[in-house]
Structure formats: C-alpha cells, structure tokens
Amino acid sequence: MAKKKNKPSTAYDPRNPLIVQGDGTLLLETGTEMAPEARDRIGCFAELRKSPEHMHTYLITPLSIWNALASDFNVDFMVETLQQFSKNPVPRKVIRSLTSTAARYGKLRLEKRGDELLLVGGRKLLSELLELDQLKEHVLGKRDRGRIAIAPASRGLVKQLLIKEGYPVKDLAGYDSGAGLQIELRDETRAGLELKLRPYQITSIERFHEGGATSGGSGVVVLPCGAGKTLVGMGVIALLKCQTLVVTTNNTAVAQWGRELLDKTTLSKNDIGEYTGETKCVRPVTLTTYQMLTYRARRSQDYTHLALFTDKHWGLIIYDEVHLLPAPVFRLVADIQAKRRLGLTATLVREDGRESDVFSLIGPIKFYRPWKVLERQGFIATAICCEVRVPLSDEDSVEYDNSEKRAKHRIASENFGKVRVLKRLLELHKGDQVLIIGQYLRQIGEIADEIDAPLITGDTPNAEREHLYGAFKEGEIKTLVVSKVGNFAIDLPDANVLIQVSGTYGSRQEEAQRLGRILRPKKNGQPAIFYTLVTQGTRDQDFAKNRQLYLAEQGYSYAIIEESEIRAEGVRFPSPPAP
After folding, report:
1. For residue 275, how far is the Cα from the chain centroid?
2. How far apart, in whole angstroms, are the C-alpha atoms of residue 437 and residue 432?
3. Number of helices (H) and strands (E), helices first, in the chain?
4. Does residue 348 contact residue 358 with C-beta atoms inside 8 Å?
5. Which of 23, 303, 398, 520 is deepest in the core (most CB within 10 A)?
C-alpha cells in the first residue's frame, strides 16, 4: 500500500465515512463510496472491534500503532488518514495520544557491545524503569550515559516485560548467523512451470531482512491464505543461506513444506528432515510441529522435545501460522533471541490476547497486505461469503431452551436441519470442488454418511489423508468432509466451495483460515463461495457475528439468506452491505 503523504483536510466533509472520537475509537460508515479506501488505510494502524451492517468500530491501540510503525507506516500517514476521511475535526487529544504513543517506539534499544548486552535509552527513563523489581532481576550493572548491562539470556524476557510497561524495545543486538546452507530458489518448478516471486512477496522478504541490518531478522509477515506465505519463507531461507527449523501446525503441513522445498528450491531430500511423531530426522532444514515441541509424558515433567530449538546451530526459525504459537513455546522463544525469527500468518488475531508476546519475542509486523488489495490485483480469488440461517425443529427448540449455555451452543451447532440445507447446496454445486468442514466429530461423521463422502479427522492416518487430498486435487473426489484439522495447511487449489457447518465458538482466526482454504485463484476465473450454516436465533448466530469480525476488517461482507431462499435454480445472493 502506498504510504505517500496526503494533504491534510481542513474542510471536513459530512459525506466522509469516518467519525473520530476522543478516546481513539473510529466509527466507519460502510455504505459510503470512500469506505473501502478508508478501511484499507485505517486497518494498517487500528483494530476492528465491532462490525454491524452499517457501522464498523475500530480502536487505535498502542500495539496497533507500534506494529504500523514497524511496517513502515509513519505517524504522518496515520494522522493524515484520519484527517482525510473524517467527517468531523479530528480531536487534538487523539493526535497527541497517537503521536506520544508512537514516540515510545524505539526509545529503548537493545545493543551488543562486545560480549555485553546493553539496554540503551534516556537516563531519566532508565532510572524510572530500574524501580521495577522484575527488571532488576535481569540487570548486571548500571552504566553511564543511559546504558544498562542486561544478562544476555534475559533478552526476550526484558522485551516482554517492557512492552507491558508501555515501552516496546527495538532489538538491535544482532543475530547468530547459524550454520551455512547452499540453497537457491529455482527459476522453474520440477514440473517445468515458471517460478517467479510476486512483487509483494519480494517486498515482504526485503522488509524482514532490511539488507542484513540489525533492525532486520525478526518479525511477522501477514498475508492471506493462498497468497504464497510458504514461498516467502523459502525466499528468506534462500537469502540467508543458513540451516533452518520450520515449526508448523500438523503433520500434513510438515509434508507440504517438504514437497514445496523440493519443488521450488535446489535442496535435495538429504537436506530436509522431518521431526514428528512418526519420524525424528534432524537435517539442515528440519520441519516439525507445535504439538511435538509441547509434548510431555506427564504434566510434572519437562517438555520432551524443546531441545530441538537449541541442540542444532540454526540460523533461522520459521513459525508457520504464528498466531497459534503455544504458551510453552513462548517461554523457550524468550531464551533464543539470538536466532533470526520469521512468523508467517494470515491473521495475527489470538484468542488468548497475547499479540504483544508475538511482537516482543517473534518480532513486529514487518509486512502486511490487506486481503481485498490482493484480490483486486488477482493474486487471490474473489470470494462470496454467505450466512445461511437454518431454523431449529420444534423438538430441538424445547431442548435448547431448557439447556445450559455450553449445551445450547452444541445443540445449535449440530442442528440436523443443516444437513437438509447442505444437501440442497450440494445439488446446486454439482461439478464443483466442495469442502465441508465442522467442529464436532459426531456431526461431520453423520454428514459424511448422509452424503456418502470421504471423511478426514485427526484420527485419519497420514497416508490415507494424503491419498484423499490427492484424489480431491485430481478431481476424482468432488466432495470432501473434514474436521478442524482442515483449518490449516491444506493445499487444494481447485477447491472453490466451502460449507462450514460448525466452528469453535466465536473464533475469528478460524473463520479467516477456513475462508483461506478456497482463496487460491481459479483457472476459470470463477469466484470462491464460502457458506456458513447458522442456526437462527441461537448462540450459534451470536458466535457467527464475532467469527466474521476479522474478515469484515479485511473488507468481506456476508450476504444473509434464509433456508427458503435456496431454490432449485440456485442461490440468489442479496447484495451484501458495502464493506
């Protein structure tokens, strides 16, 4: 996104889409002509909190400001965006707060002087911070001229502590180069197809690396599913030419990374190892899972495989789907800050609220590109999102009304009326490649039986999974039912319809990941269609609104239709509200 300066607006226009409130809350009227451009710009430095049909609510937070600065969006860009799109004069205290918060970014730095790790900043600020008992634990000695010696092993813990005090630390202490690795990206795949990095992939690699400066080498790249995050990761490995550990979500993702590395780089099979429950082979590029790293036989014991982080001379650790980084891994990441760290994700939303830990320990967002921008450029498929509201039967309504909250959600999620609607949708999409995904094993098992389709769950052996995925890719299977294992790392480029029958409560990250399963550009140029089946007037519908929040921030709108509107001639999508 261009970061050119726009002339500040002095004559505020009531036709503008934005209302800026004194507490940093931004209200965006979605039905205006300027709303999409305003949304793309605001999303670079503010967080979407609510997304009802006509008015979206954003909040400017310290973390959203600091991530924007790290992504090269400066204060002028933020202030001028507010002034350009606001229908009211921007409150001065909002500009003061934004400016003062931004000024904290980089006030504290970690630098290396010989073997010493120094926390560098203004004398007054450091004196105030030294009053913190938690910080004192990591201090080796006070120095003159605004420098404090910090225990090298405390590098990550100090950053974690200080961001919670409102001071993000700029880490300029540099990195261990790690063991070398001969690797290049190919000019064409092994199948003979041209391989060329897209402009935004090149930019994301450059932003992460920053020309080898100490300010580069740690951070997060945020790109939508289907935009080629794996290729970005391989591009970074090829640039750094160092031995690398890749941590990802599951064995399917491990296998996929292995195939991609062989297909698109000069690495051989002997260069790539898998460290999973099935095999434990450590090689110059090793692929493992978060589950392996957090495995322990008993709660009272240490994590069995965490030594994988430290026992080999890695120069880079890639955290695929970094928003899923488990808490135990956070603790170890704090101990290995001298290694370069790349986080890859489609959404940095964490349901546990630990985004600041990702900022401190993996690094800030170094590159972000809104989903709709890449859609307009043709790099990901156009998507139609549709929420189909399905009523409960009279019998189930009685049970729902007399149940506790948790049970209500399950009753509504497993509403058997969804199977009826699902069958109608499958009739309308004969010939399409359809993924059906759900949370509850009993529900998706019944669905697979009802429609006579293969089912993949966490218990499905890897060999069988790979066979079914392969048959789906080849078009031998047109419909595939998957549990939540299908949320991540399924490379099914021709899938063009996804039907979600249930989800993990109000998980925004899950909604984004599921839409991402069908966002690879289609050969015929047709849009992808994402149906979510929701039980009308229940907690299922309430959770659906929260699930859709992140995608609303990216510019997606959900057309709302009733079951009765699914007719034999097709679904007539009502025009969704302007994003």
Report:
1. 24
2. 16
3. 22, 25
4. yes
5. 520
Handedness of CA 259, 261, 264, 269 (dihedral sign): negative
Residue with tokens 């982080």: 309
Neighbours of 416 (CB within 10 A): 14
Give CATH for domain 380-571: 3.40.50.300
Place of tokens 């500040």: 8
Q: Write out the DSSP string of 478-495.
A: SEEEE-GGGGS----TT-
Segment 32-44, tens digit of pLDDT: 889 888 988 998 8
Query: pTM surpassing 0.90?
Result: no
Kindly state the tokens that stand for 309.
């982080």
Query: How many Å apart are CA 486 and CA 482, to the nearest integer?
Result: 6
- Does residue 261 register a pLDDT over 50? yes
CATH superfamily of 199-369: P-loop containing nucleotide triphosphate hydrolases (3.40.50.300)
Task: Tell me the domain boundaries of the chain.
Answer: 18-103, 108-167, 199-369, 380-571
Alpha-carbon span 65 to 72, nearest angstrom: 11
pLDDT tens string 418-471:
999 999 999 999 989 999 999 999 999 999 999 999 999 988 888 898 899 889
Residue 578 reports pLDDT greater than 50: no
